[in-house]
Amino acid sequence: MLFTKKRKLQNPHILVAYFSRSGNTRRIAKAICRQTGGTLFEIQPRTPYPPSYEETVAKAREEIQRGYLPALKERAGGMKPYKTVFIGSPNWWGTLAPPAAAFLAEHGLAGRIVVPFCTYGGSGIEELCGTVARLCPQARVLSAFEAYGPKAKTGAVKRQTGKWLRRIGMIR
C-alpha cells in the first residue's frame, strides 16, 4: 500500500468498478474506495438508459430477459495490476444490471478475487452472486454486500460497509 502526500491510503491492487443509475451504488463504491484505497472506475453503457425510471425498468427487464450485454463507453485500462476487483451494481430483476455484467464479461478476471456489492429497491441480493460467479468462473468470488438504495446516503451504511470489509479481510 502507498500513501500520497496527503497521507491518503492507496492500494494499487484494488479496483472498485461500479454502475449506478441514480447515485446510490456510486455512494457505496466511493465508501469502499475510501476504506480500501482502491482505484474507482465508473462503468457506463455507450448508450445511456432513459432518464425516466419506468422506461429504464422496462429496458433493463428486456435486456436481462434476452441476456443482452450492452457496449460500454470505455474499458478499465490495464487490469493486470489488480488482484481484487469489487463490482457494484443496482440489483435489477434479481441480478446485475446489464452494464455491470458486460464489464465482467469483457475483462478477464481469472485468478483474481471478485467482490460483489449492490443496492436494491425492492429485492435483495437474490441471483446477483450467482451471476457474478457464472461470469467469472476462474475467479474467487467473496461474499457480497447489499444496501437498500435510499439508505446508501446514510452514515450507517458507511459503517456497515466497513464491518463487511473487515469481515471479508479487505481492511483491518
From TrEMBL:
Signal peptide: none annotated. SUPFAM superfamilies: Flavoproteins (SSF52218). It comes from Christensenella minuta. InterPro entries: Flavodoxin/NO_synth, Flavoprotein-like_sf. PANTHER family: EXPORTED PROTEIN-RELATED, FLAVODOXIN-LIKE DOMAIN-CONTAINING PROTEIN. This is Flavodoxin-like domain-containing protein. It holds the Pfam family Flavodoxin_4. GO terms for molecular function: FMN binding; oxidoreductase activity, acting on NAD(P)H. Residues 14-140 form the Flavodoxin-like domain. Gene3D superfamilies: 3.40.50.360.
